Amino acid sequence: MFSKSILPAFISLFLLTVSSPLRQISPGITVSLSPVQDAVINAVITNHGFQGWKILKHNSLLSPELTRTVEIYDSHDHPLNFEGFTYSYDTGSLNESDYISLGVSQSFETTIDLKKIYKFPKGETKFQVKTEGVFEAAPLDSTANTWEEYKNLLPYQQEKVLEINVGIKEAKVEKRMETVHCTPERQAVLQNALQMVAYRANLTAFEAIHGDPETFQRYFKTTLPDERLLVARKFHKIALEADPSYDTEVTYSCGDVDGICQNSKYLAFAMGRKKTIANCDGFYELPVEAKNCHKRDQWSVVLHELTHIFFHTKDHAYGYGGSVRLDEDRALENADSYTLYAQELFQPDCER
């Protein structure tokens, strides 16, 4: 039996013993939010501290999934309804794809499409975006292969509340892009390919900044942060232009224009000045998604042509063998470098 004088000390010792191993420290992590377009924002995470960290992506601002990492308030300071999701993940099989390295004075940038995680009310255009929370982190020199190593909680501060103007127009939800010469069957094929491009280009934008540097190096011959950010922004632009929530200047033809498809080898082509993309008959014979690595399929052909329209990419090399042999300058302006890089992210086990 414990005496009254011993019991409080024992309880304190017990609580210290069973408390969580996570340690909250003050690492000097800041988050800066800035507008990109409509409800799309940039988030820049910067390490102002004196120690580098490996920061876990899951359920944080670094996660590409539609998780609750920011809060949005209307002009009356009422929070908007969250429409994303939360998820559980296997903490026993972490690897390099699950974290980003953030050295001293380094920054990482990611994009968030707020319309995909929040319901914006009709009639409102002005909103405030706020974020606060913690990152789970391990020291930069750790292996960071087990969840137990992420025992540090890094609280972050938002540098300034972000104010955004969001134009909500029902017509934009209904309109993807102008399509011509489309039968119902071909229209359905095109819409499916565009949906795949919108989703995959958005994830590829994230990977361009935070993903495997060796893979990025193979396709673009650089791993400089500025170049990775440039490529990420291009993929995000493609994602927006293919997404049904955004208007676009592109006209998409489900059939031939000006007789160009008379060459039976053509799958699709882009007319930059007219901002028109057309599919030839061969496009509809392609699989929706190729099973073999870097083979042509419908979604990658659409992605390829969109890079021509919006970034004036060239065809310095076509296919994997030639594209990975380009120097940095040509790789960054080669349409297939972007296409093949995106394909590989969704075919990680393919053999070249």
UniProtKB/TrEMBL annotation:
<keyword id="KW-0964">Secreted</keyword>
<dbReference type="InterPro" id="IPR024079">
    <property type="entry name" value="MetalloPept_cat_dom_sf"/>
</dbReference>
<keyword id="KW-0482">Metalloprotease</keyword>
<keyword id="KW-0862">Zinc</keyword>
<keyword id="KW-0865">Zymogen</keyword>
<comment type="similarity">
    <text>Belongs to the peptidase M35 family.</text>
</comment>
<dbReference type="GO" id="GO:0004222">
    <property type="term" value="F:metalloendopeptidase activity"/>
</dbReference>
<feature type="active site">
    <location>
        <position position="305"/>
    </location>
</feature>
<dbReference type="Pfam" id="PF02102">
    <property type="entry name" value="Peptidase_M35"/>
</dbReference>
<keyword id="KW-0732">Signal</keyword>
<comment type="function">
    <text>Secreted metalloproteinase that allows assimilation of proteinaceous substrates. Shows high activities on basic nuclear substrates such as histone and protamine.</text>
</comment>
<feature type="binding site">
    <location>
        <position position="308"/>
    </location>
    <ligand>
        <name>Zn(2+)</name>
    </ligand>
</feature>
<feature type="binding site">
    <location>
        <position position="304"/>
    </location>
    <ligand>
        <name>Zn(2+)</name>
    </ligand>
</feature>
<dbReference type="GO" id="GO:0005576">
    <property type="term" value="C:extracellular region"/>
</dbReference>
<keyword id="KW-0645">Protease</keyword>
<keyword id="KW-0479">Metal-binding</keyword>
<dbReference type="InterPro" id="IPR001384">
    <property type="entry name" value="Peptidase_M35"/>
</dbReference>
<dbReference type="GO" id="GO:0006508">
    <property type="term" value="P:proteolysis"/>
</dbReference>
<keyword id="KW-0378">Hydrolase</keyword>
<dbReference type="InterPro" id="IPR050414">
    <property type="entry name" value="Fungal_M35_metalloproteases"/>
</dbReference>
<dbReference type="GO" id="GO:0046872">
    <property type="term" value="F:metal ion binding"/>
</dbReference>
<protein>
    <recommendedName>
        <fullName>Neutral protease 2</fullName>
        <ecNumber>3.4.24.39</ecNumber>
    </recommendedName>
</protein>
<keyword id="KW-0165">Cleavage on pair of basic residues</keyword>
<feature type="binding site">
    <location>
        <position position="315"/>
    </location>
    <ligand>
        <name>Zn(2+)</name>
    </ligand>
</feature>
<feature type="signal peptide">
    <location>
        <begin position="1"/>
        <end position="21"/>
    </location>
</feature>
